[in-house]
Automatic annotation (TrEMBL):
It is found in: Secreted, Extracellular space. This is Peptidase A1 domain-containing protein. InterPro entries: Aspartic_peptidase_A1 (IPR001461), PEPTIDASE_A1 (IPR033121), Peptidase_aspartic_dom_sf (IPR021109), TAXi_C (IPR032799), TAXi_N (IPR032861). Belongs to the peptidase A1 family. The keyword Nucleotide-binding does not apply. SUPFAM superfamilies: Acid proteases.
């Protein structure tokens, strides 16, 4: 959320899944000065789309205009040469083109977990708001082994600290310091002996040389965010856990977020790199989120979706 600017209305034009252009006649948005954004946006990007649970967010405004459910699916591409997709409203089906030209519906393989609400919300300009997306991660596994950590940090404290948030604003997953250190140590223990550590490259705290690659990315231990329910977990493979910082050097793509302080801080913020090539469905009426884990397991990516631009199903 910006800390200033002007609220305005305009006509929003967006493409329907049927291929036609449709419009939102009184689309509400916030226009801010360029200095507020600084260098935080990617090259060529002029603004941000609010996808939260608030009643002025894009999913809600589209649902009100076209009379569909407050529901959207997000698939971020890992490629700079190909677009991902975001679909608002009901959809049927998510067609994914797999080699050799076989259509499958990835949505049928989604695992669902409840959306949670931080009881204290987030604080902006003295006001509390509850539009962020939290899920109930119960523990973390590396290579199938439980990571020893203080699991009470994964629940909400009285002040609102704790919990696990999903946020594309963060480029990489951020972990509270003790959780970060525990995950990093467990990850290093599970690496093959042929992998050697090198000096860390900011913002990362663990970098390596000698990691081999496969069709699912760098061959490193899997990281699981374990969720409520039987066999519920979000698996992060090498393509999402590692970041290549220079030739032959890969870093664990998680960031040390420090300890809980005066500002409300989640224990885990699942960031953009870890979401890439994962299909996420945010179902607000049912208060749940569905996720596919890496589409590389299906030998495809978000770039292969039949719809390749932001669309609205009406």
């Amino acid at each position: 959320m910006a800390t200033g600017g002007q609220v305005a209305e305009d006509v929003l034009s967006i493409r329907s899944t049927t291929g036609e252009a449709v419009s939102v006649p009184r689309f509400v948005f916030n226009c801010v000065s360029a200095w507020l954004l600084g260098n935080d946006l990617a090259r060529g990007v002029k603004g941000m789309a609010g996808l939260g649970r608030s009643y002025v967010a894009l999913p809600t405004q589209l649902a009100q205009t076209f009379n569909f459910q407050r529901k959207f699916a997000l698939c971020l591409s890992s490629s700079v040469k190909a677009s991902g997709v975001i679909v608002f409203g009901d959809y049927s089906p998510y067609g994914v083109m797999l080699p050799p030209h076989k259509n499958i519906d990835i949505s049928k393989s989604l695992i669902y977990t409840p959306l949670l609400t931080n009881p204290r919300g987030a604080k902006y300009l003295g006001q509390r708001e509850f539009s962020e997306y939290y899920i109930g991660v119960k523990s973390i596994r590396v290579n199938g082994k439980a990571v020893p950590l203080n699991t009470t940090l994964l629940s909400f404290e009285d002040e609102g600290n704790g919990g696990t948030k999903i946020s594309t604003v963060n480029p990489y997953t951020v972990l509270e310091s003790s959780i970060y250190n525990a995950v990093k140590e467990a990850f290093v223990r599970e690496l093959p002996d042929s992998v050697t550590g090198v000096n860390p490259v900011a913002p990362f705290g663990a970098c390596f040389r000698g990691i081999r690659s496969s069709w699912t990315g760098p061959q490193v231990p899997s990281i699981d965010f374990v969720l409520p329910g039987k066999n519920g977990y979000w698996r992060i493979l090498g393509a999402n856990s590692m970041v290549e910082v220079r030739k032959d050097v890969e870093c664990l793509g998680f960031v040390d977020g420090g300890v809980f302080g005066n500002l409300i801080m989640p224990a885990i913020v699942i960031g953009g790199h870890q979401i890439e090539d994962n299909l996420l469905e945010f179902d607000l009426p049912r208060s749940r989120v569905g996720f596919s884990s890496s589409l590389l397991l299906h030998q495809t990516t978000c770039a292969h979706f039949n719809a390749t631009t932001t669309v609205s199903h009406v």
